[in-house]
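The passage that follows is intended for readers who have already worked through the single-chain material. We present the inputs for a multi-component assembly, then the predicted structure in tokenized form, and finally a short commentary. You are encouraged to pause after the input and sketch how you expect the pieces to fit together before reading on.
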Amino acid sequence: MRIDYKQAAEFIKNCDNVLILAHSSPDGDTVGSSFALCRALRNLGKRVNVSCADEIPEKYDYITDWCAPQIFDVETVIACDVAGVHLLGENNAVRYGERVDLCIDHHISNTDYARRLLLGEHSASACEVIYTLLVTADIPVDRMTAQCIYTGMATDTGCFRFENVTSETHRIASVLYTYDIPFGAINRHLFDIKSKARLKTEQIVMSQPEFCCGGKCAIIAITADIIEKEGLDDGELEGIPALPMQIEGVEIGITIKEKERGVYKVSVRTASVDASAICANFGGGGHIRAAGCKFSGTYLEDVKQKMAAAAAEALEYDGQ
Amino acid sequence: MRIDYKQAAEFIKNCDNVLILAHSSPDGDTVGSSFALCRALRNLGKRVNVSCADEIPEKYDYITDWCAPQIFDVETVIACDVAGVHLLGENNAVRYGERVDLCIDHHISNTDYARRLLLGEHSASACEVIYTLLVTADIPVDRMTAQCIYTGMATDTGCFRFENVTSETHRIASVLYTYDIPFGAINRHLFDIKSKARLKTEQIVMSQPEFCCGGKCAIIAITADIIEKEGLDDGELEGIPALPMQIEGVEIGITIKEKERGVYKVSVRTASVDASAICANFGGGGHIRAAGCKFSGTYLEDVKQKMAAAAAEALEYDGQ
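Having made your guess, compare it with the prediction:
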């Protein structure tokens, strides 16, 4: 059931013993929104924990390491930035999938699985939704909460680069910049500094992208071999899907990550066509310029072919 | 003579037959601020041209191609984003260096060479200063003017990444986002899309950076050979100085560009120490995290050694 900011504000003010769920393969926005909400509610004296099916990348330690787990029986379940039950990851989906009391999200592809859904469909990040929700609920935003919110806003917009940025995004950022937060160092940490393994991986995957649709679509693959050999974690792989879009003339960038043998996570980025629609062909979803889908029990070449065909359809490319 | 926004507003409202000077080796901020001011003043019926010693890179065509030159005798000279007379480039320095009526800038290293100086020393870009000036002067900002201003704000902050960003930067961006401007496409154009020559150049210069100060300083060189072989223009080289800062552990990134045989333009980026002070050793200047200097009549190895020594001094690195 869709609810508005006022209703969601009432809900979070009145809940307690809260478990906040982030999505699997956690990114800056699901981590930032989950820990921002956790922090703000704990500041009110509530008991709150955050759970994520996968390990949270080390790069986000600076917004999570304040948060010692608390012991309580879960009464309320809130999902942050989780567009569908399956994105909770297997354990959390089985255990809590049927009992999510509130989902706070910004994905147009949200399946409306929760009892209540606060959907900021024009918000660039779930963190933007969280910020507006906290302001609506008149819940104080302290320095660390602001830092969590900034992290999700920045990571989901490529540091204010992507098409999802709005006037409201910058307005909120302008307020967050009044806090004493080392923004320059955080941006360097999130967007600039790369481990040598990451730099090498970029060189490998970008040295020979595969092109289709007359150069309008570029496909890169990060195989399990590369990930293992370079010892990369999820945090180090974040942002790779933006790389094929750097190539002049490319309108659809497809990044295929082999999560384990035969299991592929595909990220689609687009300049003009609907990325979410491309991924919907394969049970995935997301946003108009950034979306994803999964394939299991198949081969890399098969995934490439299927994605290339979907890209050609989206571009109405007939091989001429 | 330093003047404030109100005085500068009076000045630009009352001037006419204006020549606006951008700095040589033009970047997004000098181009954006010059053409924003030109546009806003032409909209008032004044006669205004922009002049730059070097050719303006093609990538900025989208903010300059509306501007057909006008014919008039120059009465007023305004410099935008030009910290010193020598940065006007040889011809413009000789011709107009002594008669700059107003300089609009944000570099702390500005030499106060103009008759009047409006210096936004805490502004991330000259375009931020221009925006505040136009608002102060009550001069309308139309869509193209806003697009020029956004371009300089975005390029001088690495799209809101660098340490120079303030709450005010985002506040102005929030206002600019209310205009019907294709921000996503512009950001892609400015920050993401790279020609194949640029991508190859990045791979060449980043394949073997030289390290000193125990890995805290990285030096890369773009030789005249590479520039010529890949056919790169100034626009395609913008942003390269940010690359050595991507390497984990690097606190000073030095990029040496061989402009012509024996003439080197050095760009310094820093994470913690004062880049402007490092460059001041060699007659250069700029900002605390981004600065530059020049060397003539010497060899690349000599430039590297001098810069490495200055970096060691700044880091108080004694080789232990």
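Commentary: Chain B has two domains: 5-191, 196-315. The interface with chain A takes residues 158-171, 173-175, 177-178, 183-185, 187-188, 191-196, 199, 203, 206-207, 242, 245-248, 271, 289 of chain B (CB under 8 Å). How closely did your sketch match?
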